[in-house]
Amino acid sequence: MFSFFRKKPAATPAPAPSTTGGSLIGSALVQPMEIPVPAPVAPERQSWMERLSAGLRKTGSSISQVFTGAVIDETLYEELETALLMADTGVAATQFLLDEVRRKVQQTGATRPVQAKNILVDALTKLLLPLQKELVIGEHQPTVIMVAGVNGAGKTTSIGKLTKHLADDGETVLLAAADTFRAAAREQLAVWADRNKVEIVSQEGGDPAAVSFDAVTAGKARGKDVVIVDTAGRLPTQLHLMEELRKIKRVVTKAEPSGPHEVLLVIDGNTGQNALSQVKTFDDALKLTGLVVTKLDGTAKGGVLAAIAQEKPVPVYFIGVGEKLEDLETFNAREFALALLQ
User: What region holds the SRP54-type proteins GTP-binding domain (predicted)?
Assistant: First the structure.
C-alpha cells in the first residue's frame, strides 16, 4: 500500500570539509542538484488516478471541450476563462493560468489547441505545487494533530481513514473525541477506534478542551506515536465556537508545549469558493498547517484547489473521492492537474 507518511530521518554528521580545495559534492558545503526521475506507477496509485479522474470528469470535460477546435485564438481564451471560472478556480487563479498559457503559447509558437492544453496542465501543476507536502510523523512523540471542519465536510470519517492508514504503517494512535456537542460524532469515532484497534479518550457531555488535555496527557504517558483531536464541527460565522477552537489549541499546548504539531482543516470539495472562505477564516483563528479536501467524487468542481493555491496556499495533505478507505490519498500536484484536465 502507498505510504502516506514519512518519518523524519535521524540527523547524520556532515562530512568534514576538504583540505585540498574544491567543492565537496554531497557535503554540507555543496549539495548536488536533484534531478527528479519519474518512478514507476504502482498498481495502487494507478487505481487511485482512475478514481480521481472519474471524480473530476465533470469539471475536466467542461475545460477540455475548450481545446477541441482547430486553432488557438481569442475565442479559445475567452472560453477557457469562462470554463475555469465555472470550475470555481477563482478570478486570481484564472488570470494567472490564462497569462501563463498566453505567454507560453507565444514563447513556443504553439498553434494547435492540444498544445495549449498541455501548456495549461504544466501551468496548473506549477500553481498547485506549493500545496504538495508530506505529513511527517515521528519528529515529535506524540505527534499531536488537531482536526477542524464544518459539519458535513467529512471530518470524523477522514480522521477514521487517517487513523487506519497510520495504524497500518505501524504507528500507535490515540483518538480524542472532543466533538462533545454531537453524540453521533463520539459514537462514529468510537467505531473507528474499535475497527482500527486504537485507544480513544471520550467523555459524554464533557468540556472539549478538557477532553483534549486528557488525551494529549494520556498519549504522552502511554508512549503513543500520534494523538488526533476531533473537534466539534462548526461554521466560521459561529464566533463563540471558533473561540472554543482557540481554547482547545491553547489547552493542547499546556499539555504538550510543542503542540499541536499539525492543525488540519477538512473541507468539502463541493462547496467551491465557500471552501476558500473557510480556509481563510480557520487559518486566521488557528494558523492551519494542512488541509484535507473531501468529496471530489463527481459533483465537485475541483478548481477550488487552484483558488486556494493562488490566494491562501495552505498545504493539501490528502484528498478524497469517496467513502471507502482507499478513496483518501496523498495530494500530488501533477496527478491532480492531469486528472482535472483529462
Answer: 315-328
Q: For residue 166, what is its C-alpha cell?
A: 497510520
Q: Which one-letter DSSP state was computed for residue 142?
A: S
Strand, helix or coil for residue 319: strand
Distance in angstroms (rounded) separating the CA atoms of residues 321 and 323? 7
Q: Is 92 annotated as a binding residue?
A: no
Burial of 301-334, coded b for 16+ CB within 10 Å and e otherwise, reads bbbbbbbbbbebebbbbbbbbbeeeebbbbbbbb
Domains of the chain with CATH codes: 43-131 (1.20.120.140), 136-330 (3.40.50.300)
205 carries a ligand binding annotation? no
195 assigned ligand-binding residue? no
What is the per-residue pLDDT across 180-239, written as a single tens digit (0 to 9) for each?
A: 777 677 888 999 899 889 999 998 777 899 999 999 999 999 999 999 999 977 666 667
Cell digits for 36? 527528479
**133 known ligand binder:** no
* Residue 87 assigned to a binding site: no
Contact 196, 163 (CB under 8 A): yes
Secondary element (H or E) of residue 44: helix 43-55
Interacting residues of 226 by C-beta distance below 8 A, sequence separation 6+: 137, 142, 143, 144, 145, 166, 171, 172, 173, 174, 219
Is 230 annotated for ligand binding? Answer: yes
Q: Is 259 annotated as a binding residue?
A: no
What's the pLDDT tens digit per position in 53-97? 888 877 777 888 999 999 999 999 999 999 999 888 999 999 999
Dihedral-angle region of residue 277 (phi above 0 means left; psi in -120 to 50 means alpha; beta otherwise): alpha
